[in-house]
Design goal:
Layout (H helix, E strand, L loop, with lengths): L2 H28 L6
Keywords: Membrane, Transmembrane, Transmembrane helix
């Protein structure tokens, strides 16, 4: 694999991870948090 291939994979992972955390954060904010 070339460096460009690795960069594209890393960028894909970052964008997917960011989208996941944003969705998780918005979903979490809608729910009232219950502290144990």
């Amino acid at each position: 694999m070339t460096i460009k291939d690795w960069l594209s994979l890393i960028l894909q992972a970052i964008s997917t991870g960011t989208a996941f955390w944003v969705a998780w954060g918005t979903r979490d904010k809608k729910k009232p948090r219950h502290k144990k």
